[in-house]
Each structure stands twice: as structure tokens, then as C-alpha cells.
Fold each of these.
Amino acid sequence: MLNRIVIITSRIFGQLPFSVIYGFSNVLFLVLYYVAGYRKKVVTQNLHRSFPGKTPKEINLIRRQYYRYFADLLLESLKGLYMKEAEFRKRFTWADPHVFDEEIKGHKHIIMLGSHYGNWEWGSVCMPLYLHHQLYGIYKPLSNKALDNWLQERRSRFGLLPVKMSQVARTLVQEHDALAMFAFIADQTPVDVENAFWLRFLNQDTPFYHGPEKLARRTGFPVYIYKIERPKRGFYSISFHKLTDDARSLPEGELTKRYVAFLERQISEAPQYWLWSHRRWKRSKPANASVFR
């Protein structure tokens, strides 16, 4: 039943013009913020703990801005599942088309780190339109297998190849000769907090997956982070910033520290575009875990 609801809804929104999409979004914001109060306690707590120096008025402003954007994000994501190439090229632009020239000339694979900031869904769908590398999106499957298969099919129509976390090593071996980019959404909460990297992030001890850094240290691939900006409603720009040419030359944990520092700066610049309704700090730090400084 859920499959049909999601598929039918996305097909409907996929055919609507953006003027109508944002009309619905304005109503959805009112429902989420004033009527349902969707995860309002979670958002409020996350903001207060992340920005202890801000006044209650400032926190309330960010919270309201976040819900306005979150409503847009939900409907843009549905729309994006059926958007055409020309529309993506118009609305999701590439800041520097030559950013990966060095890796292309040197036939180097790339590890790409992203986050739940801006419209990451549009980014994952349309990035292959601009890349010479084959993009592999590392993901954790949904429990609903039919819905997961449909979502991956829609997301991959421009060339993205979804890869389950458990199959990354196999994919590396199979695609050894192809010019590849392995993309991770790296700000998710790991299940295994005992073996996670713990860092100070937004004024809180926060666990991060060790997988991206482990892969980078094992392979020596250059590592980038992407930054999504929103110049105006319905339009985005993506830029890429190199974190290291070779993580094997860095101390353990340094690559993850660089990722966290970059993301924290981006969130501080425009906090309303990060996913505050996510229970990012739901797990406590084990007594034996050390925090990388």
C-alpha cells in the first residue's frame, strides 16, 4: 500500500509546474509547523544544543526557516524523481566543470563525501550528467524492498549506480579499471557507536561512520566534499572541495575531522538547510570511546 501511495504521489507531483509545487509547499509548511508539530521537540533541542550562544528568538527563527525549507525539500524530492535532464541542468548547476580534470588526466578514482544539507536528493540524481567518472552511490537499503528498488531505479536514470554498503569492496574489485567515484552521505548516525569515530560536532560529542575514511586510507584515492548552496527557491549550485590527495598520509581520524569541520562551517553559514529533524544525537558515547580533537 505504501509503495502505491509514494509512487502515485510522486508521479502527480512530477507533472506539476514549480509554481504549483511551491503553493502546496506553503500549505505543507503550515501543517508541519503549526498543526502536526512534526518532530518539533527534536528540532528545537538539536538547535539549542548546537547553537548555545544564540538567543531563543534566533533559535525560533532558524526553526521556522528550517520547516519552510523542509516542506520545499519534501516536494522537490518527489518532483525530482520525474524531472527531465534539461530541468536539472537549469536548476542544479555545477560551479566548476573542470574541478576533476587532474583526476581525469591521472585516471584516479575519487571518494566523495556529502551530507543531508540542501537538496542532496537532486544532487545524487543529476551529478552523473556532469561527471566523467562513473558515480556509485553508497547507500543503506530501506526495509521495504519493493519501495527501495523503485526509488533506486528512479534515482539512477541518469547514470548513478547504487551500491549497498556491504558491497563496496566487491564493487572496487569488479570496477578496478573504470574511472569511478564512490559517494557517501557521511553525516548519518552509525549503529555501531563502539567502533565509530567520535568528534565534537556542533558542540556535541557525535559518532561518525569509519567506513569512508577506512576506504580512503586503504585505497589512497583523492577525497572531496561537496557543498550545495541555494541561491533562490528551486535553484541550487554545487561545488567541490578537496579534503586530501591521499588519506594514507594523514593521522587516523584526520580525514573525518576535516569533513566534520567543513560541514560545521557550512551549517553555521545557513543552518536552515541541514536536516534538523533527524535524531542525530540519539546514541550516547560509550565510556571507553575517545573523542578526536
Note: DSSP finds eleven helices and ten strands in the chain.
Amino acid sequence: MKTNINLFVILSIFFGALAVVYSVWALIDTDRVEPVGTVSLALCSILAVFIAFYLWVSLRNQGGVLAEDRLDADIDDGDAEQGFFPPWSWWPVVLAGGAAIAFLGLSISFWIVAYAVPFALIGLVGWVYEYYRGNFGR
């Protein structure tokens, strides 16, 4: 995590310097500062500072060194449980189809959303309660 913090600090310095260079270059070229590019580059620098600060606070509060930061660590040391994802479930496909039709309706015509919402809700409820019915019921 220390490497990530250093990378985001370097990115922050880079974007800050780039914002200054961009402003000066625009001032020399057009006799005025171009506000959109200058502000966006400055905000990229600020965002990198926010991320570096968050990672630094997380590193300080975790109470130990991550496996990625130890030189004597093995690959298995950083292997954590990511969750349980059943490979035979069709509910994510139903939910994705309902969401795709809903976004299509938002871009084309709003009445299509009315047909997509039931599919998305059925897919969401089916996926959440997949293990509470049938052979897998608890």
C-alpha cells in the first residue's frame, strides 16, 4: 500500500505541474488562461491527493503491514476470500438484460422503461433469494 500512496503522490505532483504548464502555455499563446483545462488538471491533482490520503489513513488504521508490502511474503499470503459466486446462476443474466433494456428506454423512449423494470426486479429478487428456495433452501 505504501507503493500505491507514493504513486498517487507522484500523480498529484505531476497533474499540479501540468496544470501550471498548461495555464502558462495558454497564457503565452492566447493571452488568457483557458479555464476548463486548467481546472480539470487541478482537480485531477486534488483527486490524487484525496486518494493518497485515504490510502495513508487506511494503512495507518489497519494495524499491520499488508502482504504486498513485505519482501518475504508469498503469493498465497495476499490471497483473501473474495466472496461466493455460483457459476450456474442465470439470475445475473436476467438482471443485466432488464438493466440494459431500462437504459435503452432512457435513451430512446421512456415507455420502454416500464417494460424493463419488472424484468430487472424479477432478476434482482431471484438472484438475492436464490439460495432460499428449492434444493438449496436453508
Note: The chain has a mean pLDDT of 89.
Amino acid sequence: MAEQLKDFDDILKPDTRSDLFTVTNLRTGDARKAELEDVFALVSSITLSDSVPEDIISQFNIARNLAIYTWFSYSFHQISELKSFSTLESALRHIYPHKRGLGKLISSAVKDRRINDIGFSHIASDGRDESSINYVNKLKELIPSFRNDLAHGSTTLHDGCFFTLRFCAEFINQLFNDKGSE
């Protein structure tokens, strides 16, 4: 289905694909249709640390706002993801101003132990500690690939911006944590 310009009268109505989402109460197992408030609550729970420079926080908030507006325009998921990745790259360039290329920037952060596996909530701890970098070692290929797919005309359309926002927030927060900025 090709994306269409919404009619003026429909601008503030949810994208029809938003009707496909549900929220499940993990305690009871009850599910209900998701609402805009659920999207806002999810996105507002994804934050950057106060130690992150203000200009990076500002750019990340653009990605967060786009994620909220996916409720009204599903195709904003990929725009939010792209903005999240570009903010991640800006954060890396803030720390490594003379390096170029997202893969090289990520490699530097891994080498300098600014990021590690346990800094990501989607990685099972399995007894890993702060020295574990099995996962983050793979990011120097994966992240540029994902970003480039979005930036170079992909027609990919999925609801991945919420994961990407959280991933990028956790990555950026690790870059600027107190230990990493000593």
C-alpha cells in the first residue's frame, strides 16, 4: 500500500495501522487496544541522562516526538529511527571529533570500554559483567547497515522505532556516564 497524504479532516485521527497494537497487562494477561496515551507513556519513559550534552538531548527529543506521531502517521517510525541513529552518531562525534564513519566511531567506543553488553536492557545478563563486549562488538557492522538502509531510500516499513529509541538512548547514556567521561 502506497502512503497517502491524509485528508485535512483526518490529520488528528490515528493511522489505521495503529489499531493493530495492543497493550497487555503482564500480571493478569489481559490485553486491550493501545491508545495514544500508551505510546506517549512508552516514549516518555525513554530518556537521556542529564550528563548528555544539551544539543544531543535536543536532537534525541526530535526522534521521540516523531515516535509519538507514529500514532497518526505509521510511516514516521522509520523517520524516528533514522533520527535516533543520526543522534547516536552525533553523540559519538562529540566524544571522537576527529573520527569519521559510524562503524569506526562505534569501534572506538567499544575499544575505549565506553559501552558494554550490560548497558543494554534487551541483552540477557547471563552473569555477564561490565567487561562483556560480545554484543557490542557486532554493532560496528549492524548499526551502520540499519542506518544506511533507512537513509538511502529503503521502502522498509515496520514499527521498530520504539526499540531503536531505547537502544540509542542506552548507547548514548553509556557514552556519557560518569565512569566514561572521566
Note: The chain has a mean pLDDT of 91.
Amino acid sequence: MILQQKDLNIMLETAVAAARLAGDRAMEEINTVKVSIKNKTDLVTQADTICQQIIIDHIKETYPDHGFIAEEGKDGNLFERPPCGLPVWWVIDPIDGTNNFAYGIILFVVSIAVMYEGQPVVGVIFDPATESMFTATKGGQAQLNGKRISANDSGIDKFSNLGLDSHFDGSVPGWACKLMERTRFRNLGTAALQLAYVAKGGLTATIFTSPKIWDIAAGALIAESAGAVVTNWQGKKIFPFDLHNCKAEKLPIVASNKKVHAELINILNS
């Protein structure tokens, strides 16, 4: 079976509704946050699991046989339930920006993607603090609250905003120092939102060293639908991605407008 545009539209409506439900609940929870540490490296809050369950429950009402990959599973592992029939997966990050959320910083999003045969075909990123709903379907427009958005055509200069990671293992790498010196570098604390802002044109590019598939699946589709380029650090496509064998691996990526992508790849590999 091949998914038709009408199928994608229904999935998009489902994802938008689920994201809004989860985002609204997260805003209710932010003033009573309970924080713990998972895998000795990441913070997690009670809202992460609550919001994830809200999303999954809503999706299952319409798509009980679809598969799920989500960030918050048992004992710090990912949540995984393979599809029963059609190879459709919902890839979910209930709160992308948990570190912000844990400290009451209202800069986080809900990220939901639908992936079919290893490719994102629906993407939704919802910023509940600003009521910003970024959306895209495969082959369609990237939109913010129903209006078309596009990547910018800026170069890498002292006026351009460029997104970087919030931290690095060990010392700051040379390529990051070069870009910090040349641009007005930014980190929002949420990979999905930085990808959305590449799509909107607010960021010329964003570079990540260690995101997971749930951080980037929705944002990659939205950014590419807005005319941006999303690849690994070698300039190769990151999709299709084998969700059946997902091990929560790190997926270093570059997302940028078309003008600067080749230059960024050169900087990363020089």
C-alpha cells in the first residue's frame, strides 16, 4: 500500500491534535516539575512520561496498529512498539527541551513525526508557550500556523544566526570556535525548535553532534519542505532510517539553507 495525500492529511490532523494536547498539559505541569536523572546524563520530568502517554493514547484511537518510537521508555530506555501491519511509525519526543523545562524555562516543544518506509512523511513541532505549530507533509509546504514558511538565503557572516549544540564532550571543537567567531551563534536548548527556525528562516543553519531520531525526524521534514538541506556531516542523506533496529544512536546532522550547506560541510571536515 502506498500512502496517499489524503492519508497524510489525516495523520497530520491527528499529530497536530496530539501535540496540542501534550503541549497544553506540559504548560500545566511546568510549575510543579519533579526532576530525576536517567542514564546518568539526561534529565527527565514527570511531564515527559505524562505527555508521551497523552500523545500515544490519542494516536492509537485512530491508528491502533501503527508503530511507535518515543524517547521515554522503561528504565531510561526508548519506548518501542513495532507496527502490526502497514510499516508506519510515529516518532515522538513529548518534551524536546527537557533541561529548559526542568528549570522553568518556557522554551520547549512537542515533536511528532510519522515515518513510512524509513522516511518522514508527516512532521509537527508545537511550541506551546507561543502557540506556534510548525507542520509539513511529504511533498507539501512547510507551514507555521497555516502560513507557508521558507528557509532564508543568508550567508555565514556577523549578522547571521547559526544554531549550535548546548554542550560538547570535552573541549569546544575547532569548527565550532570558527563559527562562533563568524556568526551570532545560538542555542535554544531544543533541537526540534532549532530545525523549525531553520525552516522559518530565523536560523541560517543549525549543527548537532548527538541528536536522536526523535529529536530530528519532524524537524528534518519541516526544514526540507521549507527549502533547506538536511544531511549528515559528510553531506549524505540521513533517511531512510531503519526504525526496526533503532538503538537510540547519535545522528550528527547539518540543516541549513542551500547557499551555505557546502561551506558548512567543508568547515566540519577541515
Note: The longest helix spans residues 5-29.
